[in-house]
Amino acid sequence: MNRYQDLIDRMDKWENGHLVVDGSGVLKLQRKSDDEIVTIHRDSKIEVFNENRFEKHSYETLLTVTDEDGYPAYAGHYTRVK
User: Fold this and answer.
1) Which residues constitute the domain of residue 39?
2) The whole model's pTM is what?
3) Most buried in the list 36, 44, 57, 69, measured by CB within 10 Å?
4) Which CA distances in Å does 57 have to 30, 34, 50, 64, 74?
């Protein structure tokens, strides 16, 4: 993600960073601004950067979708939360 997108996200009041899928069924965000890991609330608006664009996903989808090896498919992706 480039610095211009970071600036736009901040101006639009998004928190951004990398998605953490906790093994206990909780989504977290490792914030880019200070590296702190914060819990994402179930009613938050969540967008994950995938293939050069942001995609909206539900909390449940991000918890349950896995890759071919069984790992959370979106863990580690650049994510923004509002």
Assistant:
1) 3-81
2) 0.88
3) 57
4) 18, 24, 11, 11, 10
